[in-house]
Amino acid sequence: MDDQWVELRWCVSRSHIAVCTDYLFELGASGVQEDYLPGEAPPPRQPWDKGPLPPLPEYKVLRSWWLQPEADRIRNMWDKEQRFLEQEQPQWLPCDPSQWGSDWKSHFKRHCLSDRLAVAPPWEALEGDLVIEPGVAFGTGEHPTTLSCLEAIAQWSEDEVWLSSIGNKRCLDVGCGSGILAMAAAKVGFVSEGIDIDSDAIEAANKNAEQNELSISFSTMSIHQIEGTYPLIVANLYAEVLEELSGELLRLVAGRLALAGILLEKEALVTQAFKELNLIRRRVDGDWVSLWYSSKE
Hints:
Elements: E1 5-13, H1 17-27, E2 33-35, E3 59-67, H2 68-78, E4 91-95, E5 111-112, E6 118-120, E7 130-131, H3 144-156, H4 160-165, E8 170-174, H5 180-187, E9 191-195, H6 199-211, E10 217-219, E11 230-236, H7 239-252, E12 253-263, H8 267-273, E13 278-285, E14 288-294
Parallel strand pairs: 6-7, 8-9, 8-11, 9-10, 11-12
Antiparallel strand pairs: 1-3, 1-4, 2-3, 5-6, 12-14, 13-14
Helix pairs in contact: 3-5, 7-8
């Protein structure tokens, strides 16, 4: 008979995290995971964030996993334990360890952007899809910022009036990560290039392009070294980085520009930096905002 596992999930006050964790180890836990309560995880802090740290939450969740006989033993001991009467009682939840190795796959889905463009992980891909293997570089199509840029590429690639007005179908993906945006543009007929300061990202992007049988130029070239103009530029970067690169992006764009990766509270940095362009779409998704622009005639 397969071993049966149970998860202990215990909500404790911040001042008691250390002593409660020690108690779980005393009971025989081989490891304890500390989590935020739903909705309380702070946004990632970036090097340019100069303000005070967000306040610490009043409560955290401690999680550990036990074989069923051990869980039964601990439950009996817990009823006699007097030290933690002021804390909430733990929850005991059944869990299936056979799923531990594959549960992460459930977070990655196939996204159909148009008749010509769909993005999927290998286990959900259909023939003709752009296939992205989740890995070291950011960009699988799941995050709303990535999806916004993919939507721009899909929509603009079907805008026949605009396409007939541009001299060439070139796309530049700034901060390309996994290369998903450059590859999406290549899938719908653009000659794509991608740049990123992270050499590991470039390695991943080249591998993804090869697996999708796409010919794309990926490099760590600085944006300051790029010459010419592009009718389509996509940049999924933090607001502070977009503001810093705004001069170069304005120099290079000659058509449409899709910006994402912008926290709602930092949107003004970007709108001010790109005010000389026409804003053609603004969309908010949770804490994130994406902005689509066109060059002024």
